[in-house]
Design a protein that fits this description.
Elements: H1 3-13, H2 15-18, H3 31-49, E1 58-65, E2 71-72, E3 82-85, E4 93-95, E5 102-103, E6 105-106, H4 109-116, E7 128-131, E8 137-140, E9 147-155, H5 175-189, H6 198-213, E10 218-219, E11 222-223
Parallel strand pairs: 6-7
Antiparallel strand pairs: 1-9, 2-8, 3-9, 4-5, 4-9, 7-8, 10-11
Length: 225
């Protein structure tokens, strides 16, 4: 479902208190329909922020690190929705040619500073990476030539704004968005008896989303069933 369809579904489910009206656009709505548009967008923000590690928010990037430059921001790599860098084992690799691609080892920022910002340093092929308090990606040693890096990051939440905007989570779980929007409507209207079915339905939809889109719990290298 796109943004407009989610708003229309929310309006239908609250029909007895919405006067039966349904938005034909998400742009410029006021009054009750304006609230519905806001509730759907807020519901989607709420869901995205409710857990760390949603699969659909994790994405890859490839870029270049330059000779003599150890620190890089999101803007350095033209990433417009950087939330946080992925630092899992093997998540970031580096190469001057594909044949020599190898993973870098993540180390904590305090250790990186002790190793690579103390005393005389010699530029060389990086073997470590870290993340600074200001969310810069840091390489050590400082690159001696230009290298290509391949890594991953978690995006910041998607904001819906146009009728045709489609939430980035799998389509089969879009129901969880309008169900969460209904909870906002219920709180606003204090209509607990009107939507008595909602808590159970929303909990089931959210549970299905979490089982599908969060990392599996593992012991060693084996996921728990």
């Amino acid at each position: 479902m796109n943004y407009l369809e989610l708003c229309q579904r929310t309006a239908r489910e609250t029909g007895t208190i919405s006067g039966g009206s349904s938005p034909t656009t998400v742009i410029g709505q006021v009054g009750r329909l304006g609230h519905i548009v806001e509730w759907v967008n807020q519901a989607w923000q709420d869901i995205q922020n409710s857990r760390q590690g949603w699969r659909w928010m994790r994405t890859e990037f490839t870029n270049t690190v330059l000779t003599g430059s150890p620190l890089y921001t999101a803007a350095s790599f033209s990433l417009t929705r950087l939330g946080e860098w992925v630092t899992d084992e093997g998540s970031l690799s580096l190469y001057s040619a594909l044949a020599d691609e190898a993973p870098l080892t993540f180390i904590e920022w305090s250790i990186w500073r002790q190793i690579y910002q103390r005393g005389v340093q010699t530029n060389n092929r990086p073997i470590h990476f870290s993340v600074s308090p200001s969310n810069e990606l840091a390489f050590g040693p400082t690159p001696d030539v230009a290298y290509t890096i391949r890594g991953e990051y978690y995006k910041t939440p998607q904001i819906l704004s146009a009728n045709a905007d489609i939430p980035e989570c799998p389509v089969r779980y879009h129901d969880v968005i309008w169900l969460r929007a209904l909870q906002f409507a219920e709180e606003f209207d204090e209509s607990a008896q009107q939507l008595a079915w909602l808590p159970t339905r929303y909990a089931a939809a959210k549970d299905a989303l979490e089982k599908s889109q969060l990392p599996k719990i593992q012991i060693g290298s084996w996921p728990l069933a």
